[in-house]
Input
Amino acid sequence: MAITPSAPSGLPPVPASNKANTFPAKYLSNERLLLETKPLTTPTLIAIFVVAVLFGSITLFLFTISSGYTFGVIVLFLGFLVILPLLSHYWLLTTTHYAITDQRVIVVVGRLSKRSVSVTHDQITAIEVIEPWLAKALFGIGSIRYSVPSFSYSTILWSNIRDAQGTLNFVVQARHFLSKYGTFKGYMTQASMIGGAVAANLGQAKQCWNCKLPLRPTARFCRACGARQP
Output
């Protein structure tokens, strides 16, 4: 179950209304969920199907030839070598969960033996979206990379995310409003207070071309994502 809240331009992103029952990690008692999602497994399933059909067809053809049995066994073995990593990757994707709260960014991997990684918002120094052309064109997916210099791996990756750019915009705006208003309570109070005022003044401001955050007409850089403005 994936929860992807919407965020009207200029307004604090709307938190998830409930927690997905399938999320394998426990949240802290004092934190609030903003977003839960999972990677898309369809591309990997298609790759497994194509490899199985291709190598299976070649193997059956060689088995029908009197002198092709040995080559058929070799092709079958090569097919297993190719498909096993794909099956492993598929299993990894099905057991991977992503979440962002008002305190942390979380990745949980595994079903029988779980591995959970989380970093606080102040540890993240940069966020970028990666959208390979073919993956975006065929499946509408991409990846989000969080740069965390203090973390042992230096980055945290959310891969195979539907609408990666839209999810990035949500995360950037949520982090901006949380950093500005401090606590989740202040975040939500301010959201209700400024909602009408911001919406009324949108026509007097310009938006960041990257994250769509409203900016002053004279702003040269976005205060949320850092993008240089035209």
Notes: The first strand starts at residue 33 and ends at 37.
